[in-house]
């Protein structure tokens, strides 16, 4: 399923952000198709060649390669790759072959299907995509799963967390930079009354303010909250909320205070402790590679005194590790 949308710069594309993957110069889809075809022929698959091509092209170029492959060999490239590869490396390569919006839809669906919901995936995607991306995502989700994203969220989550996600899913946050300090002060009082001043928390007041106001305005609200209460909004949320709604609200705050730091922390969490949460690691590296992965890697290094590359080397192995590193190092 190819959506034309991936031919424009990604919504929210920001020239001040630094990606690691750019459209490869001197791109020749026919040559790439030949390389891939040869890599998959014969005994054993040449994974290095697959990395050389697919981890060093932009998503638009990968879509072009897939089209050319189909014309030339009458087969779906993704299906061929799937039958040749396995494990985490297969997941990484197939993730790279999806358009960003289909990949998001797929990840959300997977987070809600099966046993238990991966709340962290719902938070990460719905909190960090802009209105245009969310609205396109809803359309694609409906086409892919014949069900609205909102309906699936409602069927799979409950309470205040459900209401927060449904609000975010509206894709109607104010995206201006207009900030009004008087209103911020009133909202800080509102939040204080709805939370710490009250027995039981009025979550909907938090939801409404957090899900609809623009980032510049929310920064002011957080500053005002600190003046009013003499402590941070984070501390209030830690004390008043628990579980997924707490994580959701804190996710929004982290995103506003330091977006690159938020992604660096998610990457760190995907690799800390025993075993790697590979689905999270793949999603983060793939989905940020053409947006701001270079910035995230810089913050990662400062925050954890270890390069993202070294963290991946310590945690992953084989072609899977090489593919991730190729995306982190980038192609320019």
Automatic annotation (TrEMBL):
GO terms for molecular function: calcium ion binding; calcium-dependent phospholipid binding; phosphatidylserine binding; phospholipase inhibitor activity. It comes from the Eukaryota. Residues 1-27 are annotated as: Disordered. Keywords: Annexin, Calcium, Calcium/phospholipid-binding, Repeat. Gene3D superfamilies: Annexin (1.10.220.10). GO terms for cellular component: cytoplasm; nucleus; plasma membrane; vesicle membrane. Pfam families: Annexin. Signal peptide: none annotated. Belongs to the annexin family. PANTHER family: ANNEXIN (PTHR10502), ANNEXIN B11 (PTHR10502:SF102). A pair of annexin repeats may form one binding site for calcium and phospholipid. This is Annexin. It comes from Panagrolaimus davidi.
């Amino acid at each position: 399923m190819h959506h034309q949308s991936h031919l424009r710069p990604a919504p929210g594309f920001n020239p001040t952000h630094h990606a690691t993957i750019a459209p490869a110069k001197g791109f020749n889809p026919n040559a790439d198709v030949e390389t891939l075809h040869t890599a998959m022929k014969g005994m054993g698959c040449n994974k290095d060649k697959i990395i050389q091509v697919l981890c060093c092209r932009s998503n638009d170029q990968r879509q072009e390669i897939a089209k050319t492959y189909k014309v030339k060999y009458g087969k779906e490239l993704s299906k061929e790759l799937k039958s040749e590869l396995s494990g985490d490396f297969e997941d990484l390569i197939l993730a790279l072959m999806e358009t960003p919006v289909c990949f998001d839809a797929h990840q959300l669906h997977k987070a809600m299907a099966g046993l238990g919901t991966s709340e962290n995936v719902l938070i990460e995607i719905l909190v960090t995509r802009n209105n245009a991306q969310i609205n396109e995502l809803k359309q694609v989700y409906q086409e892919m799963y014949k069900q609205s994203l909102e309906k699936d969220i409602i069927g799979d989550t409950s309470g205040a967390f459900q209401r927060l996600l449904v609000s975010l899913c509206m894709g109607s946050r104010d995206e201006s930079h207009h900030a009004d300090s008087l209103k911020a002060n009133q909202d800080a009082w509102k939040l204080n009354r709805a939370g710490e001043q009250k027995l039981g928390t009025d979550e909907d007041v938090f939801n409404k303010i957090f899900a609809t106001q623009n980032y510049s305005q929310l920064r002011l609200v957080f500053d005002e909250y600190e003046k009013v209460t003499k402590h941070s909004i984070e501390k209030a949320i830690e004390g008043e909320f628990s579980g997924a709604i707490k994580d959701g609200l804190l996710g929004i705050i982290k995103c506003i205070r330091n977006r690159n730091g938020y992604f660096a922390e998610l990457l760190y969490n995907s690799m800390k402790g025993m075993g790697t949460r590979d689905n999270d690691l793949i999603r983060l590296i793939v989905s940020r590679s053409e947006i701001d992965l270079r910035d995230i890697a810089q913050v990662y290094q400062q925050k954890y005194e270890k390069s993202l590359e070294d963290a991946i080397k310590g945690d992953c192995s084989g072609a899977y590790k090489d593919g991730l590193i190729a995306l982190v190092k980038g192609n320019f």
